[in-house]
Amino acid sequence: MALDKCPSLEKTIVMKILSLAQVDMSQTDARVVHLLDLAKAFRQIGVKTDVVVISPKPSVIKEKNLTVYVLPRWTNFWLIEGIVSSIIAWFILILKCRDTRYDKIYVRHHPNLALALRFLPVRKSIWLEINGFFSAEESYRKSSCMWLRRRAGKWLEKLVFNRASRLFCIDSRLAEKIRHTFSIPDKKTVVVANGVDIELYRPMDKIKCRRQLGLEENVVCIGFIGNFAGWQGVDTLIESLPPILKKHDKTIAVIVGDGEYFNDYIALAEKLNIKNKVLFPGKVHKDIAPEWINTFDIGVALMPPQRICSPLKVFAYMACGIPVLATEASFSQEVKNCTAGILVTYNNRDELIGALEKLSTDEKLRLELGHNGRKCAEKLFSWRIVAERILSFSSK
Q1: Average of per-residue pLDDT values in the chain
Q2: 8 Å CB contact between 94 and 132
Q3: Which of 171-185, 295-309, 359-373 has the highest mean pLDDT?
Q4: Which is nearest to 383 in space by CA: 288, 319, 331?
Q5: Cβ atoms within 10 Å of 295's Cβ, excluding its own
Q6: Could you tell me which of 95, 236, 279, 286 has the fewest CB atoms within 10 Å of its CB?
Q7: How far apart are the first and last CA of the chain?
Q8: What confidence score (pLDDT) does residue 293 get?
Q9: By C-alpha distance, which of 116, 150, 109, 112 is closest to 132?
Q10: Is 308 helix (H, G, I), strand (E, B) or coil?
Q11: Which of 144-148, 178-182, 215-219, 326-330 has the lowest average pLDDT?
Q12: b/e string for 358-370 if b means 16 or more Cβ within 10 A?
């Protein structure tokens, strides 16, 4: 497959970036959204960006002003997958760096890319985007090899973190933990939070969105969208719903997404006798995700404080003008600074129920918080602004 064909660009371009990642492009989840939106933002500000992804199925994906080359992963067994993916990535980097002079190689961190980065001849060109620790995430997964995967992940992370010339961390705690755990110099780490497509994610007519998606029109909707992973706090949300749903007949919950805990959450709603007022639409395509979010009156994000992340859902809620109900954690600092929602203590059920009650019954407060969130998203969190922050370090 030819990797050199890219859309024609203006002659004013002064930088070239090769973006490399290992994600499943068929999922259209937060990782895919982040990868594509940031690449498009680079292009919008005049940077030539080639995107190569290692994914289960080979293809060429055409996005607006962007071509993404998807190469096969070839195996689903994690150990062999890591070795094969590293070899593929290594050859991609060698061939692309030989044929085209890239100023930067921008890599979305995945431990399977560690060996490729470790032995790449060009040292100063590697920028690594870090959204979390692979070794830490494994403790939340259903895995018979969890201990081995965590140890292997930590070893690979040490290789790749020391190999990169710049580490872009989505959270200040993540940057600090990397510096402490892997003895990384302070000047090597940079904090750049995630962003949102403010044109796609925007306030829409709530009633119209509900009609299109088959929801009741005159209800208060408590909503969640995302991957049903163990750290998302979806179980905590469901367990807190009974007193709210029983007290307020015109309140429902819409929990959008999929993942390894999908059936567990449905079973939990059945156990609590609230299944008739809790909807599970399943996974939705990223292009209609804004319509689902605009059916919400409250957008929920209940990750534990020890979970270091910068969840795209929070920025999406804000961009759509939906008030946020989140746990007190590093990622919720943006919500607090923008006065875009209510923060609660993690695992404090009474506090969470109280916040749900307050937001469910106070429409004026919801509108005010939602308005604040949208203004902040436009001013601070667009992908273009994120791309400009990253590129501001190109000469440092």
Answers
A1: 83
A2: no
A3: 359-373
A4: 319
A5: 29
A6: 95
A7: 35
A8: 98
A9: 109
A10: coil
A11: 144-148
A12: ebbeeeeebeebb
Residue 199: CB atoms within 10 A of its CB come to 10
* Amino acid at position 28, single letter: T
d(CA 28, CA 49): 20
Could you tell me if 206 and 321 are in contact, meaning their C-beta atoms sit under 8 angstroms apart?
Answer: no
Instruction: Using alpha carbons, select from 155, 91, 90, 97 the residue that is nearest to residue 124.
Output: 97
pLDDT digits 0-9 by tens, 149-190: 566 666 677 777 877 889 999 888 888 888 888 888 988 999
Helix (H, G, I), strand (E, B) or coil at 272: coil
- Residue 344 dihedral angles phi and psi, to the nearest 5°: -130, 160
- At 148, phi and psi to the nearest 5? -65, -40
Q: Helix or strand or coil: residue 55?
A: strand
Residues in the chain: 396
pTM here?
Answer: 0.84
273 φψ region: left (φ > 0), alpha (ψ -120 to 50), beta (else): left
CB atoms within 10 A of CB 11: 5
Confidence of residue 219 (pLDDT cuts 50, 70, 90): very high
Strand-pair category, 59-63 with 66-72: antiparallel
Whether residue 86 contacts residue 113, with contact meaning beta carbons closer than 8 Å, is answered with: yes
pLDDT of 388 reads: 94
- Cα-Cα-Cα-Cα torsion 127, 130, 133, 134, nearest 10 degrees, comes to -70
**Count of alpha carbons within 13 Å of 41, Cβ hemisphere only?**
23
